[in-house]
């Protein structure tokens, strides 16, 4: 049986670190693509030479061309500008629109049966663009955001309660922006609903920190944005697809009426397996939660309109 093939476009912080996590997991061979001459080749060689130390046999190729990407099973797209202090994700739209358009065109020519995982920001808008450009069915173009946002929420909860992150489950809905909607009611610690373990004030503080979690790291790094958790989150999605795990993960998916929203990408819980998004799960929301979701949706809709498609 042949090994699955994973292409990662963009060999910068998120892309190269995704290659690192994926190589260690041995879930497929990896092709790392970037426009900077020599950079993906150098990183791929370095990573492959780590195999003997870490004990993995993953084959990794670095390249500036798309020939080596042919017949990929999953393609993770991370190419594009990242935020600097003072920038919003929306400030990246014009330049990243160009990059996602050209990259998606090249990828679909050679890997018409692949599943695309979009990471580039503004996330929901770039996922929408990639779906339009690729012409792929909605289940095979997925945005990565919720797994990251949820991980931030989970780690803040665990730190506050001084308990293991493994026992914390958390629920995040909505667009990948400061208006995302973390839902404490659906978040639990070993099955115990969060509101039973923490005061409303503490929960509010953690929710706010989760929403601004990306910006907090941008302000600290000063030269770019987060990449360890974003790349690990993308690889968790790759793994769910390649191993047909049917994980229930929050992902940016194309909506056609779910949550009362249509013709847009938005963060919702999905079942992720070998067919990509195999199901979108809808949960009941309170009027306040619905209002917060609508606010987040309005921001994403405005951004999608700016694509001018
Ligand atoms: N969805 C999320 O939750 C999330 C989280 C973190 C970062 N991001 C986004 O991911 C993107 C990448 O972030 P990063 O930190 O890796 O940035 P980075 O600057 O470290 O890497 C981006 C890479 O893309 C490459 N690139 C540019 N144009 C290209 C093209 N046409 N073809 C191939 N490669 C190209 C660049 O050369 C660079 O190496 C940004 O848009 C960032 O905002 C999203």
- Residue windows where pLDDT falls under 50 for at least 5 positions: none
Bound compounds, please? Answer: nicotinamide-adenine-dinucleotide
Strand tally, please? 14
- Net shape: globular
Calculate the mean pLDDT score and round it. 96
Strand order of the largest sheet: 3-2-1-4-5-6
Helical percent range? Answer: 40-55%
Rg over CA atoms, rounded to whole Å, is 19 Å
Q: What letter string, H or E per element, gives the SSE order?
A: EHEHHEEHEHEHEEEEEHHHEEEH
Terminal CA distance = 41 Å
Structural class: alpha/beta
Our estimate of the beta-strand percent is 15-25%
Main beta sheet, described?
6 strands, parallel
Structure, explained:
This protein is 42% helix and 20% strand. With 309 residues, the protein is an alpha/beta fold. Strands 3-2-1-4-5-6 form a six-stranded parallel beta sheet, sandwiched between helices. Strands 7-10-11 form a three-stranded antiparallel beta sheet, covered by helices on one side. A three-stranded antiparallel beta sheet has the order 12-13-14. α5 (123-134) links the parallel β5 and β6. α6 (146-161) runs antiparallel to α7 (200-211). It is globular, with a radius of gyration of 19 Å. Nicotinamide-adenine-dinucleotide binds next to α1 and α4.
């Amino acid at each position: 049986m042949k090994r699955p093939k994973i292409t990662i476009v963009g060999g910068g912080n998120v892309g190269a670190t995704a290659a690192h996590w994926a190589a260690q997991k041995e879930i497929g061979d990896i092709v790392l693509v970037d426009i900077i001459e020599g950079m993906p080749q150098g990183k791929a060689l370095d990573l492959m030479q780590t195999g003997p130390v870490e004990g993995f046999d993953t084959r990794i190729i670095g390249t500036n061309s798309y020939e080596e990407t042919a017949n990929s099973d999953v393609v993770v797209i991370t190419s594009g500008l990242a935020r600097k202090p003072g920038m919003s994700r929306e400030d990246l739209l014009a330049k990243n629109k160009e990059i996602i358009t050209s990259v998606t065109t090249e990828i679909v020519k050679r890997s018409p049966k692949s599943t695309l995982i979009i990471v580039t920001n503004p996330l929901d808008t770039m996922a929408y663009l990639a779906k339009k450009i690729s012409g792929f069915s909605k289940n095979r173009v997925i945005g990565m955001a919720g797994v990251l946002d949820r991980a931030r929420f989970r780690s803040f909860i665990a730190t506050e309660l001084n308990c293991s992150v493994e026992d914390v489950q958390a629920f995040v809905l909505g667009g990948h922006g400061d208006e995302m909607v973390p839902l404490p009611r659906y978040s639990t610690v070993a099955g115990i609903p969060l509101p039973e373990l923490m005061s409303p004030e503490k929960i509010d503080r953690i929710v706010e920190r989760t929403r601004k979690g990306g910006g907090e790291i941008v302000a600290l790094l000063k030269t770019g944005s987060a990449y360890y958790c974003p790349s690990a989150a993308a690889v968790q999605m790759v793994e769910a697809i390649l191993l047909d795990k049917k994980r229930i993960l929050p992902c940016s998916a194309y909506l056609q009426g779910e949550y009362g929203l249509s013709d847009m990408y938005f963060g919702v819980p999905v079942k992720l397996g070998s067919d990509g998004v195999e199901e979108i799960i809808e949960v009941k929301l309170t009027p306040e939660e619905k209002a917060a979701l609508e606010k987040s949706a309005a921001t994403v809709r405005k951004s999608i309109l700016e694509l001018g498609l």
